[in-house]
Specification:
Largest sheet: 2 strands, parallel
Number of helices: 5
Number of domains: 2
Shape: elongated
Strand order of the largest sheet: 1-2
Strand content: under 5%
Order of helices and strands: HHHHEHE
């Protein structure tokens, strides 16, 4: 996963807390459970991969965040799991297999 993956997931929890769907303690519990999943993030992105991400975002009309997922899948030669239609379309155009 791109290095910002945890922030994206935590943002979902923050929005849920702000909207009163979960409490502060429940948010903390979920964050702890997410940490225990052992999700590996790509902390080794370099200037080259960042410039490719910027180019993908511009060429494909993606957010930088979505482009980071696509760049990582392309660089590692792995499938991309997404339900985002724009990201899936861009991935397919770039030869990346998309799994739901």
């Amino acid at each position: 996963m791109p290095a910002h993956w945890f922030l994206e997931v935590y943002n979902v929890l923050l929005i849920a807390e702000r909207r009163g769907r979960i409490g502060t303690a429940e948010m903390a519990s979920h964050m702890h459970a997410i940490e225990l999943l052992g999700v590996a993030t790509d902390d080794a992105a370099d200037a080259t991969s960042r410039s490719v991400t910027v180019a993908l975002a511009g060429a494909e009309g993606l957010t930088m965040y979505d482009a980071a997922y696509l760049e990582l899948a392309m660089r590692l030669g792995v499938d991309l799991a997404t339900r985002d239609g724009e990201l899936a379309g861009a991935a397919r155009r770039r030869g990346v297999r998309v799994v739901p």
